[in-house]
Design brief:
By secondary structure, this protein is mostly helical. The protein is built from 18 helices and no strands. The two termini are 14 Å apart.
Amino acid sequence: MPKSTSTVEPKGSFVAGGAAPDPKRWIALIVIGVAQLMVVLDATITNIAMPRAAAELGIAQADLQWIITAYALPFGSLLLLGGRIADYVGRKKVMIIALSGFALASALGGAASQAWMLLAARGLQGVFAAALAPAALSMLTVTFTDAKERAKAFAVFGAIAGGGAAVGLLLGGVLTEYANWRWCLLVNIPIAIGAMFAAIAILRESKTESTGHYDVPGAVLATLGLAGLVWGFTRPEKVGWASLDTWSWIGGAVIVLALFVVWESRSTNPLLPIRILANRNRAAAYLVGMLVGAGMFSLFLFLTIYLQIVLQYTPVKAGFAFLPFSAGIVLGAGVGSQLVLKVGPRIVVTTGSTLGAIALFWMSSIAPDTTYVGTILPAMVVMAFGVGFIFMATTNIALVGISNNDAGVASAVVNTTQQVGGSLGIALLSTISSTTFLRYLTDRGVAPIADPYSAAIDPVQVAATLHGYGVAFKVAAGLFALAAVIAVTLISAKKSDLPTGAAVAMH
């Protein structure tokens, strides 16, 4: 599960002058934790609701990916800018604005009467989450000035981030089954409003003295380039991989992203300092994060549809079915944190990536007679354990050889690459699954059934769907295998090179 992170090392705050610790700091931790929980919840709470929402709003199964991507893409691409704005404008102020905006976006999504309204609301949620997540983490850093207290605060914050995904899956199942899928969005409103008023009353303001302008052109170029690439990856389902339309979008997006790199290398206040990519260990951490995000996000998309439409699980049962994944990540991260200090990050990342590749290849055997206990559950646990290894190790690798001034942004890029990789991976793997599905039916002279619930009854449609998933899982396994190769060839940091103490806690 993706975790959110700050973008810059907080400095210039009220603690710099040696002010007394905030007497409300532990209450502040609750407020900040609730804000973080909402961001993490919305990465998973709508997953279980997707089939019901699609049925009511007329969203085709091939387009379900946009419910996830519409949130993850602006969240990932604007996360660095959001953190910079929070540091300069004021972390408390940005938190309050982001909470109110998140509530408004959730209300719009909950009231959606057409597909585009839901997707627009999800996109707006992603925009405000990109400001809320780094502001919350920065507030935590400046609120707790004592090293021991800060470590405890970050442990609580990390538990919220890790457990929030599981809570989202369960809550999404309960709300979808016993209320309505719309409550998966509307539930954010009372949470956001409560957190907003508590933040006004409890949190202290802090900010960094601005030393330059915001890198708005960089943010625009990054967002447009990534959005164009995602859209380009979805086009083959309509026009084919050989179409000029497809490659025009992909080529144009690559050009825009190249312009982003050029701009960042020349900007006086870059969103992404190119210097942090110069170290091979950090570059490896970011590449691995992107590849892992691509494979992991797609797993949730496909299994959500499989469990509810093919296996006919209720939303609540589907939510419980995903819990072992969350538990596996937490356990894997705990074991991985110890192994990193004993054997070094290269072995841990390589092992985690290999476990993920094995699990996804195992999952590619999915068929109409596949059972949850026999295939899905063990493969899911193996992958989750591997992902836990990777998340823990890449967080540390991202801070190898980094200066204090760049520590925040270097750490944040790990989360950004996971979100961006998830957006790109869902688009690419959904297209591969859909085109394989259509080819399977065409070869047998069968027309696809538009309604996924009706298609679940037809054995040929089910076989075609699972064949598409199997091919997509094999490609995802290849992405994890590539991550393993990158880890072996690029990661050279030894366990003695890893940061310790607060630097690690910052993520």
